[in-house]
């Protein structure tokens, strides 16, 4: 048997909401960058699911513009990578048609023929991606155009897509007789309480409809035949599809964490916004992984179903993606690959696995209905001047080359395998796996940053050891060397430091903590082959600049604290695996002793809140900082990075915004000159941080809203344990 192949693709959805087309290819920049094809080929991908999308090719006057596609199809041939040409991806076609248009199948077939004539060497085609899923979102749920929510609209949208697929393949084969259909579908599974088994049976039968229609399985005995006929399908349509069955179809399965659902009539277990129903019963439809004790799902379970149902057909996993933190993305891809290999070992005809959304996705948190710019990265992060490769690309290369995956975070289970996945009362016996593997070492156990790293490592399933000063003196090389060796740590997060900026003017300990310690850590980490993440500050700048400071701007600290940080930066940036993050003005939900907490508590008591109006900064939400830094560390990033929330304002303006957002009187916030505060250390009047690496943090307003929502509940949480997962 030939080795399992790696395929790859960008997220290609071009869906319509009202009169607006939401184009993932434009949002990710794939539409503008020809060299993205070289990036995909560099993974070792044998095939690329390539979007020759109808909506992007046909002009308003009906003519076809091939310029974009021509350049990219030519480059694919130069690279020796075979395309799987997709014509509609959750789309409904140009404005002159829709999924309910009686002429939709014929129009799609005409477009397919034009593309086949233009590129007659292409042999693999997906005229319509995920027909059942698209029909549900467009005809049953009303989310996408034409925004219907009834059974007949769902059936007509489905039938038009399937009939269009069959007609498109006939047209393509008139040009390329060897053309093969690669039909994709999201195959989830519906679990339920006993009371709702009737609904689960219906939904589980419905998911097969497109594949059954194309494979010639929808005969007189099919359990969904009556439903289709009752809601507008015709006997002639069903007979035509039965007669023209796709015997050589390759079935592509897409499976996501959210594809498996649980229907529960016990409404009292869930918040009111989840309550729904079918007209007969009221119930909640939620992710099975969040409520089932023993979650039976994932690629292996679904592929076993598909292989049993379609034994004559070759299979592929045609989308593997999860919108999550980096280690979970790695674990999801690795688990999917391992499942595929296991199934092949049991005789399943599984050809390939597709790394999907290689350049990330936009706004899938709203099912691509609200263009808010919510981004989930993929094998590349596209928020910078050029796509930045993430650890996902390295893992994909290892898998494609048949090498054993090397990243230490793969030793732990994904969140879908851990007990904390349960958001609601578990249904059935809980089964969970603890995290294991090589740890992160985190210094600064008593500080805001160290505590935050420990908390979020625990949440993300990353084993760590949180170290107090009496457990490790970071200036003593022998101690550092011994701990690195005994722990097997793959990285160190240096969250220790002397943070009292004014006292640093005269206290020699600050040089010990802020310069000598990081320099010693960097030297010993390099010797041990471990990565190091250490922090610097906006106080390395003098404030004379009046536009955001970037990583390459010269430093000129005004105080002793900034001088120590600048000295450490220079030394660390000479080390190969050192990552130095400059940041600014922390605020977070777990530390009562920060600027926002103290100030909001004062005005809640009716006391004035004093803040300087002549220092402009980049406030940084601690959870956003820590999560971004963990992703960078896992990606193997090094060098100098600025990480702060997008936005800038004075401390006074920050206090005013926080007061207004918290519903407190702004009049109690008092702006004063810095010179009246009696501070010993000079501060820059302007120390806003921007980044040459791109805008990869959330806007400040978004972070402030999350702080106000989270802080009251989180302040009383227990602190993280000093040791976890070892």
Defining key terms:
single chain, alpha/beta, TIM Barrel, Rossmann fold, 22 helices, 18% strand, disordered C terminus
What is shown here, in short?
An eight-stranded parallel barrel has the order 1-4-5-6-7-9-13-14, surrounded by seven helices. Helix 7 crosses helix 9 (209-215), helix 15 (448-460) crosses helix 20 (622-635) and helix 17 runs parallel beside helix 18. The longest helix has 25 residues, at 151-175.
**Which geometry do the CA atoms define?**
elongated
Identify the strand order in the major beta sheet. 1-4-5-6-7-9-13-14
Domains, number: 2
So what's the CATH class of the largest domain? Answer: Alpha Beta
Gyration radius, rounded:
28 Å
- What is the CATH architecture descriptor of the largest domain? Alpha-Beta Barrel
Distance between the termini: 40 Å
Helix content: 25-40%
Number of helices: 22
Give a verbal description of the structure.
The protein has 2 domains: 5-421, Alpha-Beta Barrel (TIM Barrel), CATH 3.20.20; 440-724, NAD(P)-binding Rossmann-like Domain (Rossmann fold). The strands form 9 sheets. The chain has an 8-stranded parallel β-barrel with strand order 1-4-5-6-7-9-13-14, surrounded by 7 helices. It starts with a strand and ends with a strand. With 726 residues, it is α/β, with parallel strands linked by helices. Strand 2 and strand 3 (20-23) form a beta hairpin.
Give the SSE layout.
Layout: E1 5-8, E2 14-17, E3 20-23, H1 24-28, H2 36-42, E4 47-51, H3 54-57, H4 67-79, E5 82-89, H5 104-118, E6 124-129, H6 131-140, H7 151-175, E7 180-186, E8 189-192, H8 197-206, H9 209-215, H10 225-230, H11 235-243, E9 250-254, E10 260-264, E11 275-277, E12 282-287, H12 299-309, E13 315-320, H13 326-345, E14 350-355, E15 361-362, E16 375-376, E17 380-381, E18 388-389, H14 391-400, E19 440-443, H15 448-460, E20 464-467, H16 477-487, E21 491-494, H17 509-528, E22 531-537, H18 560-572, E23 578-583, E24 586-587, H19 595-604, E25 609-612, E26 616-617, E27 620-621, H20 622-635, E28 639-642, E29 649-650, H21 651-661, E30 669-672, H22 700-714, E31 723-724
Parallel strand pairs: 1-4, 1-14, 4-5, 5-6, 6-7, 7-9, 8-10, 9-13, 13-14, 19-20, 19-21, 21-22, 22-23, 23-28, 24-27, 25-30
Antiparallel strand pairs: 2-3, 10-12, 11-12, 15-16, 17-18, 20-31, 26-29
